[in-house]
Structures are given as C-alpha cells and as structure tokens.
Amino acid sequence: MRGQRAAGGFSGRLFRALVIVAVTGGVVAPAVAAPTTAQVRHPEDLFIVDCLLPGKVRSLGRYNKIQTPRKVVRASVHECGMRGGEWSQDLQDNAWALQAWQVQAEAGDAEAMNNVGEIYEQGVRGAPDFTLAAAWYRKAAEAGSRRGQRNLGALYEQGLGVTADAAIALSWYRRAAGLDSEIDLDAQREIDALREELARTRAEAARARREAEAVAGELAAARAELAAAERRVAEARAAAKRQGAGESPTPPPPVAMAEAAVVASRTRVSDLEAAQDRYRRLLGELEAAEAAGTQIASVRAADLVGTPGPAFEFIRPDLLATRGPLLAPVPRAGGSVEIVGRVDAPLGLAALLADGRPLAPDAKGFFSLSVPATAGTTVRFVALDRASRRAESEIHFQAEPAAPVAAVPPAPPASRARPAAGRAYALIVADGAYRALPPLATARADGEAIAGVLADRYGFSTRLLLDATFLDTMRALSELGKQAGPNDQVLVYFAGHGRLTADGRQGYWLPVDADPDDSSTWIPNAAIARLLGTFAARRVLLVSDSCYAGSFAGGELTAGDGGTAAKSRLALTSGGLAPVLDQGGDGVHSIFARALLTVLQLAEEPLSTAAVTRAVAARVAWKSTRLGLAQTPQLAPIRLAGHEAGELLFVPVS
User: Fold this and answer.
1) What are the pLDDT digits (tens) for 116-141?
2) Are residues 368 and 510 in the same domain?
C-alpha cells in the first residue's frame, strides 16, 4: 500500500508559524535580485502565501513624497520576504489576507473577488463560510473571472452555501469553459438531432426488415436448389456406376455438370447466409437504437449536455480504442480468443451488442466473450446510452507474422507534430527508499519508465527526481513553474506514499525524509495546488500514484476547450480517498503505472487526458478487482488551483 490515514490534522512547525516582516510608513524595502530556489533552505519557504507588499514611494515635485496603497499578491514565502512583504504561513490565519484582498475586490478586481471567495471557502480562522464564498464567487463570475465561474459551479454541484442544482452548476462550468450558449438551447439542438436520427433509424430498420425477408426467401430457394442439385449428383453417379463408367478417372459429362451445379449452389447459399448474417447484425443494432430512442424524453437537459456518450475500452487483447478498426493477432496455437472489455456510459447503458447480439456487462461495465481464433474474423461492438447516443468499435483478427520484420519507422504525420508555439515539460518524482516508512518496491521503476516514455514517445522535456526530500520536491516544483511559459504544457508525476487527515479534509504527499509522526514533514496537497495555480503554463496535469490522492479533486469536468486564454489544472489520481496497490501490475510496476505505460505506448494518435484516464481506469479496475481491492483512477480539476477549461493533450512524436 502507498499510504495510510493520519491520526490528526495539521501539526508541527509548518502550520503553527506566523512570520511577520514589519514595514513602517514611508519606508520601502530596497530593490533585490530575483529570488532563486538555490537560496532556499527550508521547503516551507516555497509555499505560496497571500503576501501584503509595502506601498511604493513616489515623488511629487522636489520635496513632496507619497506612498501608494499596499497591494496583496500571491507569492512564495521566500519571494515575499525578499520583497519586504507581510504574510502568515498558517493558511487558517487569514483574516488579514481577507481584508487585504477585499480592498482590491471592492475596487473592481475580478480575480481579487475570487480570492476573497476562496478564503471564505477555506475558512477564516478555520471556519468555512460557504454562503459568503458563494456571494463573492458570484461577483467574480459576473465580472468575468473564469476561476470564479468554476468555483461557483462547484458550490452549486455540492450544495455548499447555495441550494444544490446540477443545471446551474453545469451552466457556470460551461461559462468557465467558454461555452456561452444556454443549456436548454444546446440540449434542444441535440434532442432534435437525436430524434432525426431516430426517424432515420426507424426507416432504415423497416427497409432492412424487408430486405432481410427477401434474402430469407432467396436463401430458402437456394437451399432447396442445393438439395436438388445434390440429389442430381447422386443420381448421375448411380447411373454412371450402373453403366460401368465408375472405373473412368474422369467423371462422365452428366456427373461433372451436376457437380458443377452443386458447387454453384453452395456458393450461392454461402453468399446468402453471409448476407442474412449481415442483416441480422444490422437489425439487432437498429432495433436496439429504436428502443434506446424511446428513452430520450426521460433525459434531463443538463445531463444530456453535460454528460459524454458511451465509450469502449479493450483489455484482452490489449488494444487502445481509436476511430478505425482495432487489429489483433491470432495466436499461433489457434483455438478461441477471449475478448474482455469495458463500456462506460455515464448517462446509463441502454444496449450493448456484439455482432448484433445482446451482451450483458457486469455492474462495472465489464464484458467478455470468446470468438474463434481465425484470421479475417471481425467482431463489431455497439453501445447505446439512454439518449440513443452510440459508440462503435471493431476488432479485426489477423495472422501473426512468423518473425518480426525490421523496418524503418515512418516519419510522424504533420498533424502529430507538437505546435511550435509551446513546449511540454514533465517532472517525475519517484520516492521509494523511505527513511522512516516502509519502502515502495515499484516507485523507482515506475518513475524511470514514465520519464522514458514521455521523453521518447511524446517529446516532453523531462526531469526525474528519485527519492526526493521535502526540499528537493518543492524546489523542483518551483523551478518548473518558472520554466514553463504561457503556451506550454506541464505534467507532474508523483509515485510515493500518501496520507489523509482523520477528518478526510486534507491529503499529503510524503517525501522520503517524512516523519510518520510529524505532519510538518509532509507536503500538503493544498500547498501543491496553490503552487500549480501560480504556473504560467496553459495546461497542467498532476498525475499522483499514491494513497488518498483523490483529495486533490474539486468539482466535475466539463467539455470545452475554453479558448487560448483558459487554463487547465487537472489531477489524474490512481485512486480516490482510499489506499492503492504498490505492486500487482506486472511484477515491476504498480497496477496504475503499468496501465498508464501500456496506454501511452499503444497510442498511435493524439490522446486527450480524458481518453487516457478512461483507458487507464478500465485496466486498473479490471486488474485490482481480481486482486481483491477495488481501485479506480479518477480525473478531476485540482481544488482551488485555478482550473478553467481544457486538458493536456498527449501527442505521439515517434
């Protein structure tokens, strides 16, 4: 296991310290060089805090001087001190920060309004006030703050400070994502399109039934003709034998003609049987679509617009669902092949079919069936949800080559090239050799393999930290934030121990120098989220393979890129608020890391973070269930890190 619950909440020097830098009126801190992490000796000095900067002194004429109002910003403790600022390192001691932000908020600063809301949500002196948080988020949202829109939607989703309302939550999420049209209007458009599709489906089904009936009639006639032709062959052979022609090496003309007629009849029957099978599959799919279409009226507009359609993932054979047919090798031993897959239908599954025949998945969406291991066999899967939205996938079996053929890999298509406007950075932290905690057997191998595939397959500029201390980790995160620009993508991967407070409100990463009895030596998720929130990078993805990593989550995902100005701050976690397995993947990697590596290695086209999550989650859930532990990876916005819209894209470059 990669963690356990902590017995208590915040403790130790980390959240007890209150550090004040006094600034007297009319005195300003001297100019200082830009701070660097090399100067930092304590990891807490890299935490992001609300920093009240001294006012600037300006000359008015030769003798008069005035001091501008003090301004609050978010900066690291180290930077705040270097700039002569005032701060509190205890996030619960924030009444003064609230007052400072409120001055800027009342002056019309939308982001300051959002920050006031975040302080109320986190709690002034430890007591959250969700009603005031919602009020300030609303002001920020109406003033155009994407963060405020996102945060207000999260409160509506959870019913905190406002009456829970999924439709209103979705509406604010959509505004944050740059989708300004009304939900009802978009839902009506989709419903109209689905109803038109249902009408076409019914017409096509009626036509297919007529054609299937005609084929059935032709097949019956062809079978009768085949039977008659076989009788004629038997009669011709008997007649030839009676005439003494049985000794001839060449059949007499009557026999040869009868046998040719049998061959032609058998070909005709075979063709018609294949056509009948195609119509059977088609009718199965069309009738299922008709049945699913009758449920459209029961689907709420918010669910229809805010919920994705069904999707497939295949585990055996290990294939990555794409737009085209999936190619699977036929085992040389022959026999049959077991197909194991998962269908994900968030709106509810109306039908699942394999070659037109109904297939029953289990409660988690997993299904399996055996098919003959024959080259050329194609199995077609169709899933329909309650809104009659469909997913289709085909697995085509082909013979395995006798030996691998060496070939020069083709150059990647131009569409795969990473945009010149931005770069991709990855920081991989793999902690296994703990000083005061049980070691993790797979963390090092996980980190090295993830770093390799990101660099070689996806063109990331990677940095690998093995067995990193608290200070090492904070320095690397801070340096990464300064390195990545506004058009860049950033991925942070952590493999190590994690912990959760007894009340379940705060999660932690545990560096290798963590003291299991001193939470001040643990890295709070809130501190990581705040730091990621200051990154200039447009896309940030945090991948955490540790226990209780689900505590990073804050709200639901919403479709929509949000435009070039929108920022994404997402967390892909190996599990929710529960322990996760360290081993069990393949003997070398954790279950989660093995699944992630498999998906990234299989990809032949760009993958969204959501697609990667879906593929990884299917593999992890399948494997962990068979090991006796339900582990389900999750993707969600990082709580209070400034997620607006969009997601990181994995683009293969080799």
Assistant:
1) 999 898 888 777 899 999 999 999 99
2) no
Instruction: With respect to residue 284, please indicate whether it lies within any of the assigned structural domains.
Output: yes
Tokens of 98: 């609230």
Q: Are residues 52 and 198 in the same domain?
A: no
- Classify residue 139: in a domain, yes or no: no
Same domain flag for 431 and 390: no
Give kind and range of the element (H or E) at residue 510: strand 507-510
The sign one gets for the Cα dihedral 531, 532, 537, 543 is positive
Q: Are residues 357 and 290 in the same domain?
A: no
Which CA distances in Å does 483 have to 322, 476, 537, 644? Answer: 34, 10, 9, 21
Sequence-ordered alpha helix ranges (H) in 514-608: 525-533, 591-602
CATH number at residue 380: 2.60.40.10
Cβ neighbors of 238 (< 8 A, separation 6 or more) are none
**pTM: predicted TM-score of the whole model, two decimal places:** 0.75
460-491 burial code (b ≥16 CB/10 A, e <16): bebebbbbbbbbbbbbbbbbbbebbeeebbbb
Q: Do residues 328 and 396 make contact, with C-beta atoms less than 8 angstroms apart?
A: yes
632 and 574 within one domain: yes
Q: How confident is the model at residue 337 (pLDDT cuts 50, 70, 90)?
A: confident
| Residues 452 and 552 grouped into a single domain | yes
Residues 313 and 372 in one domain: yes
Which of 174-183, 241-250, 344-353 is predicted most confidently?
344-353
Written as one string, the DSSP assignment of 324-389 is SPEEEEEPTT-SEEEEEEEEE-TT-EEEEEETTEE----TTSEEEEEEE--TT-EEEEEEEETT--
Q: What is the DSSP letter of 477?
A: H
CA-CA distance, 103 to 285, in Å (whole number)? 62
Tokens 């760009």 correspond to 606
Residues of the domain holding 492: 422-650
48 SS3 class: strand
Residue 410: pLDDT over 60 = no
The answer to whether 510 and 431 have CB atoms below 8 angstroms apart is yes
Q: Please count the CA atoms within 13 angstroms of the CA of 447 that sit on its side-chain side.
A: 24
Residues 269 and 329 placed together within one structural domain of the fold: no
Mark 242-273 as b/e (b = at least 16 C-beta within 10 Å). Answer: eeeeeeeeebeebbeebbebbeebeebbeebe
**Residue 229: CA atoms inside 13 Å, Cβ hemisphere, count?**
20
What pLDDT, on a 0 to 100 scale, did the predictor assign at position 295? Answer: 66
* Residue pLDDT, tens place only, 66-101: 777 888 899 999 899 888 888 876 766 778 788 889
297, 325, 356 - which closes a domain: 297
Q: Which two tokens stand for residue 563?
A: 């435009």
CA dist 201 and 282 (Å) reads 11
Whether residue 427 lies inside any domain: the answer is yes
Number of domains in the chain: 4
Q: Which of the listed residues 73, 89, 105 is the one where a domain comes to its end? A: 89
Other residues' Cβ atoms within 10 Å of the Cβ of residue 206: 11
